[in-house]
Amino acid sequence: MNDKTKKRIYMFYAAGVVNLLIGAYVLFFGRSFLPDDKITMLILFFLGFAALDFWMPVMIKKKAAQDQAMLDAQRKALGAANDPSAQSQPPKN
Predict the structure, then answer these.
(1) Could you tell me the end-to-end alpha-carbon distance of the chain, in angstroms, rounded to an integer?
(2) Beta carbons of 12 and 54 less than 8 angstroms apart
(3) Stated pTM of the model
(4) Number of domains the chain contains
(5) Cα separation, 60 vs 33, whole angstroms
(6) Is the pLDDT of residue 63 over 60?
């Protein structure tokens, strides 16, 4: 995995933590300044995005692993096609 992908994964985790903290703040302290229906909406919003932020790195890692496996298979196929010892030679009499 390259550095750009790792940075993206870390940013998703950081955003997930921020969304969890804001959702927890609204859950515990929101009753003092927000109506109940807004509290419910905000909690669902922030916790939903937190779930998405923790789910996306899993999908990014899965996609990166699939891409790497495809590249390895292509390199192996290309290497076998270009390798003179791997090519079939006519039998010697």
Answers:
(1) 51
(2) yes
(3) 0.75
(4) 1
(5) 38
(6) yes
